[in-house]
UniProtKB/TrEMBL annotation:
It comes from the Eukaryota. Keywords: Kelch repeat, Repeat. This is F-box domain-containing protein. Gene3D superfamilies: Kelch-type beta propeller (2.120.10.80). The lineage of its organism: Eukaryota, Viridiplantae, Streptophyta, Embryophyta, Tracheophyta. InterPro entries: F-box_dom, Kelch-typ_b-propeller, Kelch_1. Residues 50-88 form the F-box domain. Transmembrane segments: none annotated. Pfam families: F-box, Kelch_KLHDC2_KLHL20_DRC7. It comes from Daucus carota subsp. sativus.
């Protein structure tokens, strides 16, 4: 267990800004507030740290480095409850202590499996995640919500046979553990998914017997429930999604008709529960990421250029990727410290990870990174906690 004594720590006025905020009502600690509430029952109350108000005790726990959280979760039920809650992230954000780690799903050397590994902003490898529960899958979706990684649906492989899955599993980055969430309404794989306004949306993909889907649904983490929403106009698979300014954008992929239809962008507005279309999309995207409120992607027919979409004016611009050697090089993306990482799949010897900084002065956007993966990158997510 981490060794610290909150009562001996001398807090400055700036350090105690969290408690000041509570006192002034921004973060209300009254009985009517769920935020910073004490773990009370009708007949029993156990303080988080004896001798300290719970808001101060929680602040003390939030000061501990992130890598100690899994051990702290085993101290008591109230510690574990706090560490797995959104409250912890809010407190750490107020204290300026959020740590950004990159979670990368890499292919094993033998090509027969994969594993999640964790990398910090300096390129240091922290640990490997416990294996994902359930059967081996392909075509699943990954989304980050409240410091947790959700692995959604996919094509389950059981006894060599694949079938669409509705399973959803959650990895808690603070407790280093997996748990199962509610199943989706429709089993699917190779679909689009993204977080918008604290909700997770899943759209299209393939369903049972390989049928292409146009249906969509949304997950509410507060109720642990999936709800069917209005479908898109046409089936869509191998597509992807992202959220901009409170709306869901579904791009790329294919439909039952012609490849040209995938240039349509399906946009969902949660407030009105409606879809509309844009015609300025992209086709057969092999990598995508959202950074600095813009979408970065690479299309299958043009692996040497970044396509950058600005949702504010629905415009695209192309940026050449400074690579030499093989013209067949394929990239996967990662995001760390506000920069885009380009991991080469089946990289040639001596390849160094490329880094694109959208905030750099013109002409200096491209650099190289010391981050090197232990295997080919299948996908990655960034989690702040």
């Amino acid at each position: 267990m981490p060794n610290f004594d909150c009562k001996k720590k001398k807090f400055s006025a700036s350090t105690m800004c969290f408690s000041d905020t509570v006192q002034h009502g921004t973060l209300n600690s009254s009985k009517n507030s769920s935020f910073m509430s004490s773990p009370k029952t009708d007949d029993y109350y156990s303080p988080i740290l004896p001798g300290l108000p719970d808001d101060v005790a929680k602040y003390c726990l939030a000061l501990v480095p992130r890598f100690s959280f899994p051990a702290m979760g085993g101290v008591s039920k109230c510690w574990r409850s706090f560490i797995k809650s959104k409250e912890l992230l809010t407190v750490r954000k107020l204290a300026g202590l959020l740590e950004e780690w990159l979670y990368v799903l890499t292919m094993l050397d033998d090509g027969k499996g994969s594993r999640w590994e964790v990398i910090d902003h300096l390129g240091g490898k922290h640990h490997v995640l416990p294996p994902m529960p359930g059967p081996v899958k392909t075509g699943f979706g990954v989304v980050v919500l409240n410091g947790k990684l959700l692995v959604i649906a996919g094509n389950s492989v059981i006894d060599g046979t694949g079938c669409a899955s509705a399973d959803v599993y959650q990895y808690d980055s603070c407790l280093d553990s997996w748990s199962k969430l509610a199943d989706m309404n429709v089993a699917r794989y190779d679909f689009a998914c993204a977080e918008v306004n604290g909700m997770i949306y899943a759209v299209g993909g393939y369903g049972e017997n390989g049928v292409s889907l146009s249906c969509a649904e949304v997950y509410n983490p507060e109720t642990n429930k999936w709800t069917v929403i209005e479908s898109i106009r046409r089936p869509r698979y191998n597509c992807f999604a992202c959220g901009f300014e409170g709306k869901l954008y579904v791009l790329g992929g294919r439909s039952n008709f012609t490849i040209g239809n995938s240039r349509f962008v399906d946009v969902y507005t949660p407030e009105s529960h409606t879809w509309h279309e844009m015609k300025n999309g992209c086709v057969m995207v092999t990598a995508h990421a959202v950074l600095d409120d813009k979408l970065f992607c690479i299309e299958w027919k043009n692996q040497r250029k970044l396509s950058i979409f600005n949702p504010k004016d629905n415009s695209w611009k192309m940026v050449p990727i400074p690579v030499t050697g093989s013209s067949t090089i394929v990239f996967q993306f990662g995001i760390l410290e506000g920069k885009l990482l380009l991991f080469a799949v089946d990289a040639e010897p001596g390849y160094r990870t490329l880094l694109y900084d959208p905030m750099a002065t013109p002409g200096k956007e491209w650099q190289t990174s010391n981050i090197k993966l232990s295997g080919s990158c299948l996908c990655s997510v960034t989690i702040k906690a």
